[in-house]
Amino acid sequence: MCSRDCCSGPGGSNRGNTCSDKKGAKAGSLTGEKIIPTPQSLLYPYEVIEEIADFITKGSGMRPKIGIICGSGLGSLADMIQDPKIFEYEKIPNFPVSTVEGHAGRLVVGTLEGATVMAMQGRFHFYEGYPLAKCSMPVRVMKLCGVEYLFATNAAGGINPRFAVGDIMLMHDHVNMLGFAGNSPLQGPNDPRFGPRFPALVNSYNKDLINKAIEIAKAMGIESNIHVGVYSCLGGPNYETIAELKALRMMGVDAVGMSTVHEVITARHCDMKVFAFSLITNKCATEYSDKKDDEANHDEVMAVAKNRQKACCELVSRLIREIHLASA
Ligand SMILES: O=P(O)(O)O[C@@H]1C[C@H](O)[C@@H](CO)O1
Ligand SMILES: Nc1nc2[nH]cnc2c(=O)[nH]1
Asked: Which one of 130, 246, 250, 265 is separated from 12 by 20 to 30 angstroms, measured CA to CA?
C-alpha cells in the first residue's frame, strides 16, 4: 500500500483514493470510473511506522518517553529541549511536510527537565489536504519510539464568554465534529498491534495531569488565566460562522480549533496518557456585529501565541519535570 504524497498529501494528484500503486485501482473519478476508497488506516501500515520510528531512535540514540505537539505559534516549546537532535520533516522517510505558517516542520528529540522527549515543531492539519490518518500518523511514530505521554497543544478560539485572549484551557474532553461527519484516523482495517478496533474515549484526558497542571498554574501565579474545558475540532481552514459558534456553544464547547482531536484519538487508541491544552488566541463572537475586529485571523493567532509562549513553556516544562521525578 502506498503512503507517498501522491496519494495522501497536498498536491498529491491521487489524494485519498486512486493510487496507481494499488492492485486493480483505476484513476480518474472524473471520467466516471470506479473510485476505490483508501481506508485511512492503510495509508501507514505498522511496518512503515516502525521504519520511521527506527530512523528517529537510531538517528537520535534516544527512546523518548514524552511526545509534544506544538500548536500554531507554539514552536518555542521545542526550543526548550536540550542537546537537541533535529530531524527536518522532509528528510524523514515517508513523512509529510508542514505547509502552515507557525509550524516549522521539524522533529526535535532531546531532554527536557531530565526527561527524554520528542517534539513536533509543526503539526499536520486536515485542511492542508492530508487525511486524518496522515495528520495523526506521527503519534504512532511516537508510540513506537517509546513515548508514553502525549502533550498536545493548540491555538484556539474561545467560545466560552468567560475566556479571555491569552488564557489557557486545559482540555478535559472534546467534541469531534469531523467524527460527526464520519471521518476518523482509525477508519479502515484495525491493526491490533496499535490498539483495539473499538477504543473507548471517556477519560481520554488524564485527570492527574490536569490536576497537576492546575497546581503548577497556581504556583506560577496564573491561576486566573487557567480554565478546564471542552475543545472541538472543525475541518478549517475557514474560521467559523456566528451560527456555527452558537451551535457549538449550545453543545457545551468552550474552545474551537482545527487540530488535536484526531491526534488524541490515535494516542488513546495506542494507550498513551494524554495531556492537552488550548491557548485562547481570539475570542469568538457568538452575536452578529459589524465590527471587523470580531473576525479571527491567523496573524492575531500567531501574535498571541508569541506573547504567551513563556507561560506555555513554563507550564509544560514544570509538568514534564513532575512526570520525570515521579517516575525516577
Ligand atoms: O495547529 P493549531 O491547531 O494550533 O492551529 C490553529 C488552527 C489553525 O491551524 C490555525 C488557525 O489560525 O491555528
Ligand atoms: N477553528 C478555529 N481555529 C482557531 N485557531 C485559532 N483560533 C481559531 C478559531 O477561532 N477557530
From this structure: 265
